[in-house]
Design brief:
The chain has about 140 residues and is an all-alpha fold. The protein has four helices and no strands.
Amino acid sequence: MDKNTEDSLEKLFDTAFKDINLESPSPDFTEKVMHQIKAEKRVLNIEYRPIISKSILVGLFVLLVFIIAFFSTKADLTSSGWLDMPVAMDWTNKISFPEFSIPVSNTMLYGIVAFGFMLFIQITLLKGYLDKRLA
């Protein structure tokens, strides 16, 4: 636009808005709005339901214990008839735990322990924070 058009539009707007009175809100407008916002506080009814139920977790734990106990007996799975083992066999004498011989330096060991400790602290703090926030 050229300068003359801008000037004429400016004069037109000035004359049009000259007679319009500005409305101002009441002095307690902000207080009324905030009072309505506080009155409309939403209540969240969020019920915590774990993804995996306790019965399934217990079942998985028992299954894991049985698998570890079975494989710790060092049963020969390749022989024919490994399912025909006697029920009353004394398998508790055959339990042997594997020996781990992974070379780990003290620095790495301290790092792993510190990481586990910090992870435990963080999970505990986040659970407390989320419990307060969702309650």
